[in-house]
């Protein structure tokens, strides 16, 4: 079985966010897909099922769980499909609960993804555990169905944050128990050389820090678009590994998030017949 590893939201290897991609004719057993994701030990492994040359289904697994939405692994998957599986420049991903993602490869190989916006609402009250897990002054807290989004005063505060991952993990587990949804934590601030910067933490699903998270920018980018009164923004995410996201607000509560990708590896994986 062929597997690709791609660095997403970057021009360069060893930057952005790495994802594994496996293209299938038929779905594997869920347990097997989870085992492969655990073995890969990347933020996400994407499994793509071909419908025809322009239509695909997609699912994403962290080392510990299947997730409802992953932007960087969608970018990585589109990169692989445009490279080896289709001559088209426009494809569609069918996603459970989120409808259709429309993806285009530009002439310069930038890949643009049309997603539904998942807006965040400002909270007047939020868990004390969130404040305990973070060390920098909080300006405001927002939440959507994916994560708490914590606004900081400066880029330095975002970059110098050293969260307590055990408390963040407990926070996510408590959210799962009380709301039937797992909440991660993003921190963000107005940028200096870009419009906004962010970092993202998801220890409850086995990812202490996700380097570049396309999905959460369906909330972060609209938030800063409103604050900055702009419809087109450039965002950066990450500390040790940084990536760049080009964001454009669209009509009908949609957003275009674009980026580049770089192929790191093509491998053959072997699965015993017992699976």
Order of helices and strands: EEHEEEHEEEEHEEHHEEEHEEEE
Q: Could you estimate the helical fraction of the residues in percent?
A: 10-25%
Mean pLDDT, to the nearest integer, reads: 95
Class inferred from helices and paired strands: alpha+beta
The total beta strand count reads 18
Q: How much of the residues is beta strand, in percent?
A: 35-45%
Unreliable runs:
none
Radius of gyration (CA) equals 18 Å
> What is the number of helices?
6
CA(first)-CA(last) distance: 13 Å
Globally, the shape reads globular
* Largest sheet descriptor: 18 strands, mixed
Walk me through what this model shows.
With 275 residues, this protein is an alpha+beta fold. It is built from six helices and 18 strands. The chain has helices spanning 30-40, 71-84, 128-133, 155-160, 165-179, 217-228; strands at residues 2-8, 17-24, 44-50, 55-61, 66-67, 90-95, 99-105, 111-116, 121-122, 140-143, 147-151, 184-190, 196-202, 207-210, 232-237, 243-249, 254-259, 261-268. The chain has an 18-stranded mixed beta sheet that branches. Strand 2, helix 1 (30-40) and strand 3 form a beta-alpha-beta unit. The longest helix has 15 residues, at 165-179. The model has no long low-confidence stretch (mean pLDDT 95).
